[in-house]
Amino acid sequence: MNFGDLLYNYIPLIISNVIVIVFFVFFKKNKEKETELHKNEVSKLEAQALRQQMNPHFIYNALNSVQSVMILKGEREFNRYIGMLSKLLRFTLEINTYEKITLKEEIEYLEAYIGLQKMRMDPEIEFKMTTNLNQEAAAYLIPPMLIQPVVENAIIHGLSPLKNKKGVLHLTFTDKNKSIQIRVEDNGIGYETSRQKKNKAKALHKSMATKIMKERIDIFNYLDKNKTSFSIYSKKEKNKEVGTIAHLEIPYN
Question: Which tens digits make up the pLDDT trace of 107-162?
Fold first, then answer.
């Protein structure tokens, strides 16, 4: 038997083996794709659940301030606070139903939240906002309620404990590297001092908002190659804490 005849006899075997290999590779890729889709779906559901966890946490903090407003500000301001609180709670419940909202909506929400907190505090805090954007804020899409926990921590744990000093909160939004970079700066007691106080008090509240935010960031980073990041540190002058700076970087659509 010559080489041609030998090759001819083996052709069916070769073809069948190729078919088996192609089928196996195709099946494996399909299985991997299906598994990845399931993982993504689970992660999306987890992200949705974490967004919903923000609601009772936020409502608790807002309602916890009602009594202090009544005592410190009087009935007129108390009624105004209740009206603002009602509006903000509706806004909170609404935006939590969306996976993405515009940066404009997020900024409006933050302004409403900070306005409510300013009414609660005595003396009121000074609030500044700077935007360095390449487009209108309505053009950017980001996940909701990622920035609010950072602002909340700055006010409650940084500015509220201040004695004989006016609190200042400064938010900066910058469009850089296809991300919205948010800087939250305050002149409060400082990150390290605040953390020590919370550790001593063993406060359950101390990390809930930030913990949920970090868990959401982990899920976003699993789903998307564009990474969301968060960092926080004390602002110091002459080795003395004079406030806190937090950085949040959110890729946008």
Answer: 999 998 898 888 877 677 899 999 999 999 999 999 988 899 899 889 988 898 88
Ranking 50-59, 187-196, 208-217, 244-253 by mean pLDDT, the lowest is 50-59
> Rounded to an integer, what distance in angstroms lies between the CA atom of residue 88 and that of residue 148?
12
Assigned token pair, 176: 């850089």
Q: Compute the distance between CA of residue 169 and CA of residue 151 in angstroms, rounded to an integer.
A: 9
Domain containing 99 equals: 3-251
Residues near 73 by beta carbon (within 8 Å), at least 6 away in sequence: 81, 119, 122
Q: Kindly report the CATH number assigned to the domain that includes residue 65.
A: 3.30.565.10
- State the pTM of this model: 0.78
- Label residues 141-167 b or e (16+ Cβ within 10 Å = b): bbbbbbbbbbbbbbbbbbbbebeeeeb
Average pLDDT of the chain is 80
